[in-house]
Amino acid sequence: MGIVPGVAMPRACGVGMIGLGTVGGAVAGLLLRHGEEIARRAGGSLVLRRVAVAHPGRPRAVALPDGVLVGDARAVIGDPGVDVVVEVMGGLEPARTYVTEALAAGKSVVTANKVLMAARGEELLAAAAAAGTDLFFEASVGGGIPVVKAIVESLAGNEIREIVGILNGTTNYILTRMARDGMGFGEALVAAQRQGFAESDPTDDIDGHDAAAKLAILATVAFGARVVDEDVYREGISRITARDIAYARELGYAVKLLAVARQSDGGIEARVHPALLPADHPLAAVNEEFNAIMIEGDPVGPVVLEGRGAGGGPTASAVVGDIVDAARNRWRGACGRLAWGGAVRRPVLEIEEIVVPYCAFLEVADRPGVFARVAAAFGDEAVSIASIVQKSRGETADVVLLTHEAREAAMQRVLRRLRALDVVAAIHAVLRIAG
Amino acid sequence: MGIVPGVAMPRACGVGMIGLGTVGGAVAGLLLRHGEEIARRAGGSLVLRRVAVAHPGRPRAVALPDGVLVGDARAVIGDPGVDVVVEVMGGLEPARTYVTEALAAGKSVVTANKVLMAARGEELLAAAAAAGTDLFFEASVGGGIPVVKAIVESLAGNEIREIVGILNGTTNYILTRMARDGMGFGEALVAAQRQGFAESDPTDDIDGHDAAAKLAILATVAFGARVVDEDVYREGISRITARDIAYARELGYAVKLLAVARQSDGGIEARVHPALLPADHPLAAVNEEFNAIMIEGDPVGPVVLEGRGAGGGPTASAVVGDIVDAARNRWRGACGRLAWGGAVRRPVLEIEEIVVPYCAFLEVADRPGVFARVAAAFGDEAVSIASIVQKSRGETADVVLLTHEAREAAMQRVLRRLRALDVVAAIHAVLRIAG
Question: Which of A138, A306, A337 lies nearest to residue B328, judging by beta carbons?
Fold first, then answer.
């Protein structure tokens, strides 16, 4: 479909872009270098008419035709030859203002901006619906992985029950190096920076902010509920040690930074934290900088989508896919074809309300009676222990404790009890277990 | 998107179905039981108006409203209240006739029929284009995995270079049991039949016909080329032994029935055969009855989609996704939104022209000088040996030989030479290596 070889194609769609960084440059390059092939697949041509940058005079990696570069986003939004506005500048403002203005002007908008969609997605989708136009944002989650379209279109017959994702390539690369090469967190971070998989300030990735924004977007489209980035509970990976990972592996688990959104009885769970995954879980073998999302739907069962979650090429693939979608709608007078009617109000649960199994990595005094006291801390809170592994280190012993499912609030009380025990030398990590 | 809570929805789409087997029953059940939720997501309701079956009087697992069941497919196609015709009867005829008539009548058509699409897909897509309507067929490949939409829409900006898939759940289940439990082929087949993953006559699955049909469909949409099931080279899995699989594992490989379609210099490769996959390949850990497809695109890189490839629920998910797509187009007057303009003519290569590394499992006489003679058979055809593993079994020795990349024609000549050597007791299997 979408292949029109050797046929005259009178249809064209004017594309304007705001921003020309890594993603914008890749999008422009793709449209300019592969325009004919894309036109064959799309059923009409995509013409890059305007690109707004802060400094139009500066030299660029991609050679744009004369007159395309402008210094003002409004020159893109206001150009009557621009049908689709592509926002790849990132950040909340002025991106929000530009997108809002473009929608109000009846333009179709394609954005790769996760910060914007996670914070203001609902407002912007409502603005698009009010203007009778399209807002597409596939590139805001999972780079080139077609997850938004899968949820909104392919799985429209399903009730989505759960989404479990590895949504941040930087942290997945770091955890992969720690697991595979025994690196410490700091060393693996430096390796990620050298490979270009981590920014010089990697805070947003390491502390789970990036994954939380993406999860908020997925939860919104999957559950039809309003979930913003600030609703998502977050724990980062900076406290994970190579020793935790090695112990987890001995027990048959991988350690991943998971993003979990789940429909549960009282509301919606939305959380990003390091977690143990059984070695045979579909996400356990997703390594390096790759992202993957497992969607559990009824009646489809589990569907897993995997690919490169960042970088110019994969993100440009998603942006151009969205531009083609927008163009096809404009050519057929079908903008707003995927009606957005607003979100259902379901509460997002506090982390204390979730129920999962846990794994605790402790260091305890290596002498008789200690075990009984540690076990009592769990028993007193009715948290049931599933298995215990102990390794003597001389004065102390490493203890790895796996629990059955327990309410987070109860587990937090167990930890307070453990901290108060003089025989517990350290609580290295407490990880939730997925799958 | 597609969520319209508490809003009056005047839009309805009449659905007619031909066939009420496993898939049809699941589709009807989904539309009847979850109609309201699907309507919220779709932006309008899907109303099941007519279902044609051979014996309307027979008792059914799904309770349909009075008057819905009819005995004649033409009563579905000709009903003015039916907007979308869902063909889930399977087989080439009369399905082809019914689909053709429905398209000519301006109905949108959704089919789950791989046999039909693999043999006549191009003709039917052209008929849909001529009638200005839609033909959707997501359910014909990979059950609930949204692979057709991913290729045609999400990845429209990419040049698809290669598709590697595990497209048949029956054979994947059999190979999984052979690998995991050491079963022989026959024993694993019986286990698959007991689990309901294999038909009583499993020929179409075992010999690769089913996977070949699905690969033809994917190659057609991915490459914009005409590839029909008969173009696909096929080898089945019935000659694979548990011993081959055990040896492969020792060498770090899994054995899978792979479907490979690739753009190569002289044309298109399209082949289904058992193959060795490196243990860290994304498809190597796809087990049981699951299907998965790896799409290699430029610029997206590798994208892997995994899920249940068969069964009522997953297939119904894909069918209903397509019905929603068709309904959204009808509501917006945008049928034929994904223009099909015909296929590019690129030749499908003969198997002798492909170039891959090989793995040969031989049994040879266990005495001096044998190795040199075996190696010479490779050397004389300029097929370069990458590694050799030998295990004595007394009189004979098992030899596993891995080659560097070689042309299939050369490898076939090597095999003829080996068969002519008196020191070669048996050639157990020769498998292509992927990844």
Answer: A337
